[in-house]
């Protein structure tokens, strides 16, 4: 009986082993095909983000299932015409006499930012509602759809001269010639004959190669080479201003005196970022570098917690129950930041553009300033530490 039982167990173990072998083989094949699929794209890092973020929002990623299947931003009525720009609109001064609207629209990091149909609608809604500042990037894989939305808004009467377009070059394309070539590509994708602001998206990116690195340059040299290439495109009029994104003071100092002046540094900034981020802010202010706050409402990880914060809700009640999101955006703008909240909802666009219509007093500003000293449970500091660790 014992030998029979052992034989049965041995048989079952053999069957189980075969099943696991097949599962492992299938997983290996899927990983292999997935890797080849990613590497077949010019921007594999962008594909990863454009796939994961919709999945996190329980949406089918267009990178796999195609565009136009996602629900979200409603269609724009054919008879909708441009509405007035916000009253008391505020701007930041850039080199060369250019001005950047302080309130913009971020085209990243939400599911609807990766579906071309919804991106087109989002940009068109925003421009027709009176917004004028669009923030995009090579990494977001939506240049063409942004350009189509801009073209339709222009066709309906929004002047191109009023539209401020930002995009970013990712470290995988750093290099003198590569940077110049990417500007040509961006203009074709966006359908524009100039770009208002081009940023270096990150100082570097772990494990990522680039034409510059392949040429034997280190990270610092690659940033300088890229900056010089972009500066040449600025001199030719294809780019009006240059800036950086997610740069620490050390990274900013490397570019001082090279080519075009640094017009802007886009960083994660909201009431819950750690105090050390103010070092970068202080450097920028002393050197006439404007600052744009991405993740001004807390970003993917912290937005929900921020909306429930007691101090922010108390201040909201002092202003005819303005939304907490409006309080946060207004706070950043009064500190002198540009803000680029992301949304595909036309009603939220109107709310965000409505922050020009009220002002926070000194006590309210100070109360929000103090939140960073007691930001337990918020993850904003992780971004700051990641940036500081980049070479």
Written description of the protein model:
The chain is α/β, with parallel strands linked by helices. The protein is 48% helix and 11% strand. The protein contains 16 helices and 10 strands. The chain has helices spanning 2-39, 44-56, 62-65, 116-128, 143-155, 176-190, 211-214, 219-235, 249-254, 277-286, 299-307, 310-317, 324-334, 346-353, 362-369, 380-389, and strands at 91-93, 99-101, 105-106, 133-135, 164-169, 195-200, 239-245, 262-268, 290-294, 338-339. The radius of gyration is 24 Å and the shape is globular.
Structural class: alpha/beta
Count of distinct strands: 10
The share of residues in extended strands comes to: 5-15%
Q: What are the secondary-structure elements, in order, as H or E?
A: HHHEEEHEHEHEHHEHEHEHHHEHHH
Helix share of residues?
40-55%
Distance separating the two termini = 67 Å
Question: Strands, helices and their partners?
Answer:
Blueprint: H1 2-39, H2 44-56, H3 62-65, E1 91-93, E2 99-101, E3 105-106, H4 116-128, E4 133-135, H5 143-155, E5 164-169, H6 176-190, E6 195-200, H7 211-214, H8 219-235, E7 239-245, H9 249-254, E8 262-268, H10 277-286, E9 290-294, H11 299-307, H12 310-317, H13 324-334, E10 338-339, H14 346-353, H15 362-369, H16 380-389
Parallel strand pairs: 3-4, 4-5, 5-6, 6-7, 7-8, 8-9, 9-10
Antiparallel strand pairs: 1-2
Helix pairs in contact: 4-5, 5-6, 6-8, 12-13
